[in-house]
Each structure stands twice: as C-alpha cells, then as structure tokens.
Amino acid sequence: MIWNTLTYTGWGRVRSATAQVARPERSSSLAALQAETTAPAIGMCRSYGDSCLNDGGHAVDMTRMDRLLGFDPETGILKVEAGARIGDIARRFAPVGWLPSVMPGTGFATVGGCIAHDVHGKNHHGAGSFGQHVVEISLMNDGKLQKVSQSKGMKLFRATIGGMGQTGVIVSAKLQLLPCKGDIMTVTERRIENLDHFLEALDASQSTYTVGWIDATAQGEALGRGILEEAETGYGLVPDAKPSRAVPFNAPSWALASPVVRLFNAAYFRRVPERGRTSVKPITEFFFPLDKLLEWNRLYGKRGFHQFQCVVPVSEAAVLRLMLDKIGSAGLASPLAVLKRMGPGRAGLMSFPMEGYTLAIDFPNRSGAEALIAELEEITEKAGGRVYLAKDATLDPSHLAKMYPDVTKFAKLVSSIDPDGQYETDQTRRLNIRSHA
C-alpha cells in the first residue's frame, strides 16, 4: 500500500495537518495496511475542527471503500462500507421508500464518520441519534476484523459510536433505514419573532423534521428571531434539483463584516412572508441545503472559521438568551446559525446529543472569535450542557469530564484496546482524553 504525504484540514480550515495518508479500496488491503502501520481512519473531512487531523502521523482515507453490500427491502436493513456518503444513500433509496434514519446537515458525510460522531439530524426529537439505528459494526484492530452490536461486544459497540475513531477503523456497518413516502419534502416555513416564541414553537411542533435558522445579529426585543422549517417526506413531481456550483476563491474579509451580515440576515428573515409559506423540494435541498454550493467554506476567507455547537438542557434554556446577547454584541456572527430541539436519544459513551436545545453558529476566524467561543463554552458547562466534538477545535480540556461524564469509562476501554495511542488524533491529544483512564 502506498503512503502519500498530504496536507489537509477539517472543514473549518483553521487547523491543518501534514500526514502520511493511504487510500485502500478493499478490506483485504486495509487489513494488510493496518497490520503494517496502525493508523486512524478519515473520510470526507467534513468535521469542522481537528477530529480528523493527525499531524506528523498516518491516516487511512476510507473514501474508496464506499460500496453498498446488501439491502433487505422487507426490513430496510442496509449493509454498506464505511466510506459511502450519506447523501448518495438518500438519493438511491428514497425513490423506493427508504431513507437513512438520521442525516446530518451535509450529504458528504460518510457512514463511518456518522458513526464515529454519532451525528444527529432534523428529526432528533423523534428519532434520536444516528448510532441508535446502527444494527452492527465491522471494526478492524491491528488488521483483525470483528463484528460488534448491542448483543455482541456491547461495550466496544458503545465506545465506537461517538468514539471519534479511537476503537479502530470502521470498515462497514448494517443500518436500519427509515420508511419514507418518497423522494420529495413538503416544507412549511414561518417567521418567529424572538427566542421565547422560537422555543415554544419547537416544543409544540408535531412535524417529523424541524430546524430553525436564527438571526444571530438581532438584539433587544428581536433577540433570537428567525425562521422555523417543518417538513415531511412525500411523493410527486418537483422541479429538478438546482445544479451545484463551487465557490471559486476565498472571499475577502469584508464579505462577512458585521454590517454586511446584519443586512443579509434582515433580508433573509423577510424572504418568508409574514403569513408563512409551504413549498415542495427535492429531499437533498431540504436535508443538505449547503451542498449545492461546493466548497462554501471558502466564503470565510483563507483564515477559515470556527463552528460552535452546544446543547443545553430544557431547564437551562435561559442561557441561550445570554449566549445570543454576547454573540450579537460581539459582531462576529455569520449568517449560518441554527437552533433545534433535541430528544433524549444518544447511542455511545461519548455521544453529543442530550434532551434540550442545540445552538450552532459559525464565526469567521478573526480577532476575538476564540475568546468569545471560550465564554460560550464556559456558559455551556455551567448550564450542564456539552459542546459537539465534531465541530470543536478550541475546547479547554478542563471542561471535558463535566460535559462528557462517561469519558473515564471510555478512556479506560480505548487505552486497553490501543495502549500505544496509534488511533489518537490531534483532537484527542489536545483534549487529553486518554489521561482520564
């Protein structure tokens, strides 16, 4: 197997790594590779921070192992290699009445990445996290393949889901797909005037899929205003999906200056009529709205950006007001800010989801951004919430144990599996995860 020197980044492009990277195409070549050099796996590198980075080490790029291995149309169970992209699965199976049970905000995420970060979607309040719909995982350690599930190797199964690749290389998985009515979405949009009304609307929603866009620049009585989208799958004719376009260059710094973002957000809020509206869209345009703009991370310029995402308990929802007030006053927010209601579902020891409200906001990587994020992380910890590690590049290690109370159990297990730390990444070293063992 050929190792090539590659410099790569997470999606936020703030952190980078130079590593020796190999791209196996078969499980046999992966086994030979891992027997020779044990290394963590990477996929499409759509995690925002440093969870996919291994600077100065090795990494196994799994994107060529993307085959569909079998599907049972009676049960909806799909066996698929870890490098398969979630959007491709949705496009393939929605026309015949099945969807991945949980989908993140990009269709470029791989199955292995979705398991390793136990991703959540717009239906978490009802369906839980991705890992709750994983039937079985084929996992490789030291070139040896083993299958784990809730009934076989449960401890290892729960450490692998949300485990950031620390238990070995995910080779393939069996996924329970969700029945759907077809490959279109009926989407209702309505304006929400402030944060209190937003939380009430999210709590009251009976829709299968819900997501809120927040105007993170709004202040005063309009603090937390935005647009709520509620959606269901359906069938029928819709306009062809819009062709993808690429951002051809890094945007200049003024493109996301505070006055520009305020004007854009005000116009975006008003694009939905006061009475609301209902439309029909292809599934990909609802689930993966930014995928049609390839390399959209260039909009933040060559310095990149951070995404802060937290979840706080329902009883601590008041801290969202404090966070939004700080964000609005700082003038650092971008137009990309999302609010969702989460249910109790999580599948792994280090899984992010918990019942409450999750807020995700992008910040251009400029002066003051990391200091603001540190304040938001402090607020999150004190509220009994947690920060999403798939998005993180800044979390202080001292916050980890309170946010993730199972980290000691997790660290002991992965340290026994990988005593030499061969599967460690820049993120796990930064957070000192193994020290909790």
UniProtKB/TrEMBL annotation:
Keywords: FAD, Flavoprotein, Oxidoreductase. GO terms for molecular function: D-arabinono-1,4-lactone oxidase activity; FAD binding. InterPro entries: ALO_C, FAD-bd_PCMH, FAD-bd_PCMH-like_sf, FAD-bd_PCMH_sub2, FAD_lactone_oxidase-like, Oxid_FAD_bind_N. Signal peptide: none annotated. It comes from the Bacteria. Residues 14-180 form the FAD-binding PCMH-type domain. Pfam families: ALO, FAD_binding_4. One of its GO terms (cellular component) is membrane. PANTHER family: D-ARABINONO-1,4-LACTONE OXIDASE (PTHR43762:SF1), L-GULONOLACTONE OXIDASE (PTHR43762). This is Decaprenylphospho-beta-D-ribofuranose 2-oxidase. It comes from Litoreibacter ascidiaceicola. The lineage of its organism: Bacteria, Pseudomonadati, Pseudomonadota, Alphaproteobacteria, Rhodobacterales.
